[in-house]
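Repro:
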Amino acid sequence: MTAMTNPFQQSPQYWRVVFTIPSDAAGTAEEAFNDITLAVSGFETDEANGIWTFELLFGEEPDMAEVARRVMVMEMLHSIKAGKPEMSKVEQVDWLAQTARSFPPLTIGRFYVYGSHVEEPIPTGLIPIKVDAGAAFGSGEHGTTSCCLEALDWLSKKRNFKGILDMGCGSGILAIGAAKLWKTDVVAVDIDPVAVRVTQENVQINRETTRIDAAVSDGYSGEMVKKRGPYELIVSNILARPLIEFAPQLYKNLAENGYAVLSGLLTSQETQVTNAHVKQGLKLEKRFVNGEWCTLVLKKK
């Protein structure tokens, strides 16, 4: 099968294939299918059970036997059980217009977050971050990401930071925002190699390669994380459970009077995450709420 390489190119007919997989294998889905599809998109649809739903877009009717084979390979490699791939036809769509509607540019504090489909000039006085929605989490529209950017903007009015860590960088949007805001070095790490690759691409697009270094790291155990600390600011937009587990390591890697921005948690999880860090010796300074999502700003005493 010869797949079209431009997802915005018009076709008389599209085909969509949808399947679910556990989050353990979510980071490998794009690489498993990007050579035969127009586009691969994935979203966490069941946080409690760690389930992601992936959509594959084809410009011609796909070979479902080949799709099923690739899903089976993912199951074997990661010891998981995936949902059965389901195919459906999609009527002709102006994908560029649809993307523009789905991901309009966002002004968040002093940040202007936009995708490659945006053609209008960047508003004067705002800090631009160019990030497309894709395989790695973080394009500005999610409540956790927008609250983190608001928190960075708030912190910028309090003090300057030198030496910043983005723990669980996703698309790299927060690392890029921090580098542009404080003109300082940033270490961006993620356990997912796909996220690190996407971060590196976005860092290059945003011309921050001299300030941001991205690497794979299992939490705070990575060599780069250890070598470059302690950090005056740690940003971590992940999930409540790993935030709680990482609390002692965050404290160890945070400089005296340093700040931490923690996100990826629901308001119902706020007390647990706060208590885990207060127990280590941090103090809650500020909270940002967007719907059911909450972002915490804490300071090391």
